[in-house]
Amino acid sequence: MSDLNKNIEKLAGYLKRFQDGGVLNQIGGKAVPAKAGATFETRSPVDDSLICQVARGGAEDIDAAAKAAKEAFPAWRDFAATERKKVLHRIADRIVERAEEIAFCECWDTGQALRFMSKAAIRGAENFRFFADRAPAARDGQALPSPTLLNVTTRVPIGPVGVITPWNTPFMLSTWKIAPALAAGCTVVHKPAEFSPVTARILMEIAEEAGLPAGVWNLVNGFGEDAGKALTEHPDIKAIAFVGESKTGSMIMKQGADTLKRVHFELGGKNPVIVFDDADLDRALDAAIFMIYSLNGERCTSSSRLLVQDTIADEFEAKLVERVNNIRVGHPLDPKTEIGPLIHKTHFDKVTSYFDIAREGGATVAAGGERAGDTGWFVRPTLFTGASNDMRIAQEEIFGPVLTSIRFKTEEEALELANAVEYGLTGYVWTNDLSRALRFTGKLEAGMIWVNSENVRHLPTPFGGVKASGIGRDGGDWSFEFYMEQKHIGFATGQHAIPRLGA
Ligand code: NAD
């Protein structure tokens, strides 16, 4: 039996319980259907077949979940941090034990290739371990003595929080947002993306099996415009950690205004990879290809705009075409597959619409530019050349395996092109000129920049974007800054003079 067939057989075993019972919500430690009894379908992008029914939560389910999170908050806040650390490590252990199940379900639900999803499950465990280890120090503060007072600072968890996640790597992104919230002492209501609900359910179950008290983590499935909106408007929810599109972020900011929500946004990107002619071009080529064609290009940090110096552009683009045409598109559970199907028909329609937009705008479709196969939402990895920065393919987030190549002459021009988009998430600079790298990175408008490297995530570093790419940072202590409130306490050290009114 081929590896693919073996994997498909195993997947059937993992999915059986969802096919029988659907994906339920979890509120106050209980698996429950939506109060109104409504459901929706999740379908596989491989062949559009039904995976299972999913509870379609609405405002009343969010209300119940928020109340459960509120009720569970004081005990979780006061849970000894050393014990919290142990629970979070146990969650990580169980993620590792069930990594194959998580990866297989994720592949089938999202279309992402197994070679990446098996690593994403393990990265999810690492996120829990990273924040578990930091939990005991999360409340540490400073001593800031003044002549009359001993001023100390401490941090306290903000309260129940809402976490809203997208579909592109749903398992990993959920761990990334929820692990620090729990480590800080917050309780959580999670609303996963409607296109990819399966692994969020597995993750939540793992957490309760690992000893997380009931109500600390609640899960409500549903659509953005009802369950998502209700979560952002709920008065008991103190903050919203959101990962998704920039326009959704702006809606959430409006929805959360009446209840003065603290928000953390990780939004879209149109990230440049800038290749100067003095760079190590073989490594630049590998990195540029990896950063746009891995994860189906459904990656916020993807290098979707190639800015290449005109002196090397012909050669670089020719090599690109050869490699892009070689990328293996196939079944996500086939270990050899490099690109799987796009998440959903609506997203497939969006991505493929840019093939005509490119042609009509005057660019050349140098590779791909068509669907792959007759069933499912597969597209050929695509490269547009001869593009200019004002074209829609250079400005809009396509969020698929589609790269737009634009040529530049000088460093100044490269910088101007790189910054002339509404987004500012990441940038990738390829040059062996150290002073140019310093100058360029200083002026590049992006929250994260890698020089002579693809995106290599290091959890202590800040993750996030500028401009329309986001507000706030994840990682290191920045995650705790979002999920916690600073508190100042001043202790009088003596009998300083207190101004006396009416004496
Ligand atoms: P999306 O904004 O459509 O949906 C994300 C989530 O928001 C879903 O759970 C959805 O149900 C919910 N939602 C939608 N409308 C809502 C509303 N009015 N109120 C509350 N919740 C609402 O995004 P998507 O299509 O699922 O994901 C792709 C996007 O995510 C891309 O733009 C990508 O760049 C971005 N992304 C960013 C990062 C990052 O770290 N910056 C990481 C991954 C993905």
Automatic annotation (TrEMBL):
Active site: 266
Pfam families registered for this protein in UniProt: Aldedh
PROSITE patterns on file: ALDEHYDE_DEHYDR_GLU (PS00687)
CDD domains: ALDH_F8_HMSADH (cd07093)
SUPFAM superfamilies, alphabetized: ALDH-like
Domain called Aldehyde dehydrogenase: residue spans: 36-489
Keyword Oxidoreductase part of the UniProt annotation: yes
Family, as annotated: Belongs to the aldehyde dehydrogenase family.
NCBIfam families reported for this sequence: HpaE
Protein name: 5-carboxymethyl-2-hydroxymuconate semialdehyde dehydrogenase
Organism: Roseibium aggregatum
